[in-house]
Amino acid sequence: MSAPVLEVTTQVAAAVDAPETAWGDRFAERTRRVTSSAIRELLKLTERPDVISFAGGLPAPEVFPLEQIQAAARRVLEDDGAKALQYSTTEGDPGLRELLVRHMERYGIRVGIENILITTGAQQALDLIAKLLLNPGDRVGMEAPTYLGAIQAFSAFEAQFLTVSMDDDGMRLDELEAVLRSGPKFLYVLPNFQNPSGVTLSLARRRRLVELAAHYGVPLVEDDPYGQLRYEGEHLPPLVVLDAEYHGCAQGERSLHGDVIYLGTLSKTLAPGLRIGYIVAPAEVIRRAVQLKQSADLHSSTLTQRIAAETARGGFLDRHVRLIRAVYGARRDAMLEACGRHFPPGVHWTHPQGGLFLWATLPAGVDTTELLKDALAQNVAFVPGAPFFPRGGGQNTMRLNFSHATPALIEEGIRRLGAVLARRLGS
Amino acid sequence: MSAPVLEVTTQVAAAVDAPETAWGDRFAERTRRVTSSAIRELLKLTERPDVISFAGGLPAPEVFPLEQIQAAARRVLEDDGAKALQYSTTEGDPGLRELLVRHMERYGIRVGIENILITTGAQQALDLIAKLLLNPGDRVGMEAPTYLGAIQAFSAFEAQFLTVSMDDDGMRLDELEAVLRSGPKFLYVLPNFQNPSGVTLSLARRRRLVELAAHYGVPLVEDDPYGQLRYEGEHLPPLVVLDAEYHGCAQGERSLHGDVIYLGTLSKTLAPGLRIGYIVAPAEVIRRAVQLKQSADLHSSTLTQRIAAETARGGFLDRHVRLIRAVYGARRDAMLEACGRHFPPGVHWTHPQGGLFLWATLPAGVDTTELLKDALAQNVAFVPGAPFFPRGGGQNTMRLNFSHATPALIEEGIRRLGAVLARRLGS
């Protein structure tokens, strides 16, 4: 059982509700929008041990730095246990925030500790941003498909969605301008190895996006959980840096002009069970977000923040990211090769330069929710793509995770899936 | 620095705002309601090391079961490290939930694992309940004074407050009925050793409250962070149990008739830095709350949930609670005796049977926010009472925490505070 599998267990749609009771009438309007999905029952089956599942979004436990975390936990509790177990500030552990300042600088993002708020995973960052910015009915621009957890977080604050389709270079610019012109409260973008599509926004489009957003006065929320997990090609500058450059901030200055909120996480580079994400934003935005976080959970776990800081320090985080890249890069290669070998003609898939996911598109008319039943009969699983589209569509798409299974299991699972596809496509 | 000190750093009032920028115009309506308070600057001074502070709400670090938590952390990471660092289910660790089922049964609350959702501290429980139930403008009934974190959490969802004053037996029943008749979405109650007043709701009033709430069809949210920390008198049954009895649930049956949501926490009995709270409610409510928690932070830290369960098991939690009672009971006694010795005539204070706080009321016309400046000049601090009143008032009240300072420091601090009071009251 894992959150990223359950991530697809709710859906923004008029779906089957629980029987009406006194409570049913008491739930707030926003609660009614987050309803159960029929897909939930199907996805429970993907957790059977005999199933090779590409459905989750789990990091591989083999790459958790278990020994280092054990040693860090021991040191933190021995040296400063009472503080690590006490209440702490809402902003987050200062040592951890300083470490993140130095870590982000290596990726070109220059900020101060006052620009960082530690969150209970990056999911909480999405929740706080929605709470901070969205009045009921406000519009949010986003890619289609996009991260399901963002759709859920924004739906809980009664957002309306404006979507931009994607091609192999990310958001299509011809659709983007119309969306920006329609006055969204913000544009939510996953530029690197997007979840679910695996697509990366090209440098030219990043520059143009920053220009257009500035022109229309639309702030950007840049979600970057996978940016460090690149397996080929050059690192591309994040939108937050390009926005500062566009507005004439000189090299060496803070790379926060002020119209981009950047989100990061340690879930993919250390371990998700620590629940450590972070928001990077102008100090004014951080101050407000701190007030909202205070009422949301007071602060994230003091203990796991301290353990994360103690594990990551001394350059360990950078060294460890190189190890993860090697392991996941090999798995991505295994999946790309297996798809090439086993998928029938008519199936197209993305070539992710990093991240955790590959996205496959089947001929129009094939319903991947139906197909999942066939796949489960062959003990292989994926996530149907439709829930990732906030305004519908995508019935013929699927997301395949390559970070969790070994290369051998990837080969076997894709072989089985290829056979299922071939039968369905009649090839 | 600690969250419970910062807890009083925001206030629901039209207060001084940050300078208007592009972001100022972008914030949602609810964000504007949570604004900075002038009291924040004053409270920063309470953190000077030379100040004897009764301002916080901190557990004493001496009672943290540090050795047991160290051992538990070591075992969890050695025996099952990869799982403890991975994503986990939104509902919470099954082992921890089973342990809580058994633990609550000893306090008369009989529920199943499907009735429990683990939250990131009990503060998140308040946030989720507000998100689950409140449309903008909905009314919430509550005691005045009440827990500031609840005022903040409900304000963030644009609640209107209806308040019931308190005397030494808790909520005044003569005011309660009018509030219930005004149609609040729910009534928020802290029956045991209330924060901030230290007052306990009497058994007779508990029974009448349950009857009245049932009569008017108003659900109860029962917040019980301190219930196990009783230093004198008999344990009183929680509202959730009385509600089940009232509706004719037989002994031995589940004590959830369905109209009470009960909130608990391990912050006061194990350690707050783990961030473990829980919601106990009918399965239908839990299912909805799980969906909202999924979009709020996916799940609480897998690691700290596992450590908490491993620390608490085998009866340790019950044994440890007895130790905390002995330590805090002695500190409460020290504060009561010191108040009797040093406070001038005209000052009244509560006699808490448990919990962390004592509440003092000064003659009308004395402003405790002003008085705090005098107190800080004498290196002693408290929290002015006004922010705890959601509809204003309480300028002549203060909250005094007795759990954090040693008996000797309590005596010295109250002596200093008594002198400040005597000067101000001219006695």
CATH topology of the largest domain in chain A: Aspartate Aminotransferase, domain 2
- Structural classification of chain A: alpha/beta
DSSP, total strands of chain A: 16
Mean pLDDT of chain A: 91
Sheet with the most strands, sense and barrel status of chain A: 8 strands, mixed
Fourth-level CATH superfamily of the largest domain in chain A = Type I PLP-dependent aspartate aminotransferase-like (Major domain)
SS field, number of helical segments of chain A = 16
Domains counted in the coordinates of chain A: how many?
2
Q: Compute the CA-based radius of gyration of chain A.
A: 21 Å
Most extensive chain interface and residues per partner = A-B, 95 and 95 residues
CATH architecture of the largest domain in chain A: 3-Layer(aba) Sandwich
C-alpha end-to-end distance of chain A: 35 Å
The spatial strand order of the largest sheet of chain A comes to 4-11-10-9-8-5-6-7
Helical percentage of chain A: 40-55%
In the predicted model, the low-confidence regions of chain A spanning at least 5 consecutive residues are 1-20
CATH domain class name of the largest domain in chain A: Alpha Beta
Determine the strand fraction of chain A and express it as a percent band: 5-15%
